[in-house]
Amino acid sequence: MADNSRRLAGTAYLFVDGVQYPIASEPSYRVSTVTRTTLTGMSGVDGYSETPQPGFIAATLRDGPLVSMSDFQDMTNVSVTLQLANGKRVSGTGMWTVETQEVNSTEGTFSVRFEGEDVRDN
User: Fold this and answer.
1) In the beta sheet, which residues pair with residue 35?
2) Which of 32, 52, 49 is nearest to 118 (CA)?
3) pLDDT attached to residue 45
4) CB 93, CB 17: distance < 8 Å
5) First-to-last CA distance in the chain?
6) Of 43, 119, 42, which is closest to residue 88 (Cα–Cα)?
7) Do residues 90 and 29 make contact, with C-beta atoms less than 8 angstroms apart?
8) CB-based burial, 94-104: b 16+ in 10 Å, e otherwise
9) How far is CA 19 from CA 41, 44, 46, 82, 110, in A?
10) What gap in Å lies between CA 55 and CA 88, rounded to an integer?
11) pLDDT tens-digit readout, 13-61
12) What are the tens digits of pLDDT across the range 80-109?
């Protein structure tokens, strides 16, 4: 029996509203977080400010006859799940695409990036 307990990278799967799309390469993500900026004044360090940062899930996907670029362009308020080889699952709800999809027809690939305020890994 195969022991995959030490597998850290390799395969990945992307689902949008339960539909799986073929990943060609470069899946990546950032969980929703905050950015902190140190506030300083004439008398020293006063503290910090904190602003929310959206999370994202991105990948280069494979184009095909059942994949529609206009569908990706129209994706708003979708649930996105990225399942990684190490068993980690990254999920976001209420996400939207943020870039116009451009297809590399030589490779049959395109990049997509979803952003949202609720992206978590577990």
Assistant:
1) 51
2) 32
3) 97
4) no
5) 26
6) 119
7) yes
8) ebbbeeebeee
9) 52, 53, 49, 12, 17
10) 16
11) 999 999 999 999 999 999 999 999 999 999 999 999 999 999 999 999 9
12) 999 998 889 999 999 999 989 899 999 999
